[in-house]
Design goal:
Layout: E1 2-4, H1 14-21, E2 42-44, E3 59-60, E4 63-64, E5 87-89, E6 94-96, E7 100-103, E8 115-121, E9 128-129, E10 143-151, E11 161-171, E12 176-184, E13 189-192, E14 197-204, E15 210-217, H2 224-227, E16 228-230, E17 236-238, H3 245-248, H4 261-268, E18 271-272, H5 299-313, H6 323-328, H7 339-342, H8 371-377, H9 395-406
Parallel strand pairs: 9-18
Antiparallel strand pairs: 1-2, 1-6, 3-4, 5-6, 7-8, 8-10, 10-11, 11-12, 12-13, 14-15, 16-17
Length: 419
């Protein structure tokens, strides 16, 4: 099993958890400090020579505890996360079963400084296919798990962890569907909670100051707000966000040092079509902030970092196929080279009060005058971006965007001949 390195002093015993569960996814974890590790909370794993993860047999006294993994795609989604037989919480750590692969991302997807633990289940005998500059093409029956947790003090991310929720994104034959599971630590399991929840959470930041988040466990329907795109037939469909090769192209905290995640997945037999690693782009690695603060970066690195930050935090909506991107014509995907659609001297189609008297999405050379910066910093619910998933300011993200925009060649947008 993969073992998370975030050990939590919950009072549940392992035996109680196994009896109840029946089987056995921003801050230190959002890249504010690389010394605290990657965005994933997994650290150590045990693998055999084939790259497959070691797992228990799932048997106790001859009784099989996990006879079936995954989800019955023709039935109802399980009420308890344990019924998927993919992940369990033993009172101290997250444990993943066989065919479940933990992974990390290069660049932070900010969620109120939550520590995230990510993993993918691939049905036995199935494989996923590499997609250049896109989400990996996963087979039907895939389950992407993303667990969210908060340490009491971000300066000690391995202590006093409160595991809040695990989101399951399931690949059906015709679409993806998302389901939120909230952990009940008395029960020792996570319970399907389609209505979601807003939970106040207090923790100490890296600066030693107490922070108070109104953390959102999304309603089932709210998953669409981030995962919805238009396909080639102009149909609205859900898609995964994070598992793209450019964000997976890195070592994993759960893998031996020097092991690349993509090659590990290919060696494990579930990822096909992977080109030579030198041909796979890699997003900017947020962990590098530990060694090179933003004020010491060269501008080329700042540009790359800011564009990748926008790509993973904003471009799931603001891209040419995103519902909000289509309506706003603001495309924040990393490979967009059209300055107008990137927001340069572009007036928003319908910002409402979101601009706070600002006229243009991005004013080159003037971050303070740019709507994009205002909306990614404000905590006003009528103006804040993203629309959900954030109740606090992400200091690193804000600093990157400001440094990038302030470093652009300045120009007077009122005099520019823009579309």
């Amino acid at each position: 099993m993969h073992n998370s390195n975030y050990l939590v002093a919950f009072s549940l015993s392992l035996s109680l958890s196994l009896a109840l569960l029946g089987c056995g996814d921003s801050s230190a974890e959002t890249g504010e400090s690389a010394a605290a590790g990657s965005e994933s909370s997994t650290d150590e794993s045990s693998t055999d020579d084939t790259g497959a993860t070691e797992t228990d047999t799932g048997e106790t006294g001859g009784e099989e505890l996990c006879p079936t993994q995954g989800v019955d795609l023709d039935g109802d989604v399980p009420e308890l996360l344990s019924e998927m037989c993919l992940v369990s919480w033993d009172g101290a750590e997250l444990l993943y079963e066989d065919n479940v692969y933990a992974y990390d991302l290069n660049t932070v997807l900010f969620s109120d400084f939550a520590v995230k633990d990510r993993a993918i289940y691939i049905p036995p005998g199935e494989t996923a296919t590499y997609v250049d500059n896109g989400v990996i093409d996963f087979p039907v029956g895939t389950v992407i798990l993303k667990s969210f947790m908060f340490p009491a003090d971000l300066r000690e991310p391995e202590l006093d962890i409160d595991l809040i929720e695990t989101r399951a994104l399931i690949r059906y034959a015709d679409e993806w569907k998302g389901y939120p599971y909230i952990w009940d630590h008395e029960l020792g399991d996570a319970v399907l909670t389609v209505q979601g929840e807003v939970r106040p959470i207090d923790f100490i930041g890296l600066d030693g100051i107490e922070r108070n988040a109104n953390y959102l466990v999304p309603q089932k329907n709210q998953c669409l707000e981030c995962h919805e795109i238009k396909d080639e037939l102009d149909e609205t469909v859900m898609t995964a966000i994070g598992p793209r090769p450019r964000y997976l192209n890195r070592g994993g905290a759960h893998l031996p040092e020097g092991t690349n995640q993509l090659t590990h997945f290919a060696d494990a037999g579930w990822l096909t079509g992977l080109p030579p690693l030198a041909e796979v782009p890699a997003a900017w690695d947020h962990r590098s902030l530990a060694d090179t603060p933003i004020d010491q970066m060269d501008y080329e690195t700042i540009t790359r970092a800011a564009r990748d930050y926008l790509d993973i935090n904003c471009a799931y909506c603001h891209n040419p196929s995103g519902v909000n991107g289509i309506s706003s014509q603001l495309f924040l995907n990393w490979d967009n080279t059209d300055e107008f659609h990137l927001g340069f001297c572009k007036k928003p189609g319908s910002a409402g009060k979101g601009g706070e008297n600002r006229e243009f999405d991005i004013v080159p050379g003037d971050a303070e005058a740019s709507i994009l910066v205002y909306r990614t910093e404000t905590l006003d619910l009528g103006s804040m971006m993203p629309l959900i998933g954030r109740s606090l300011l992400h200091d690193d993200g804000s600093a990157l965007l400001r440094a990038w925009i302030d470093g652009l060649p300045p120009g007077d947008c009122t005099e520019m001949d823009m579309p």
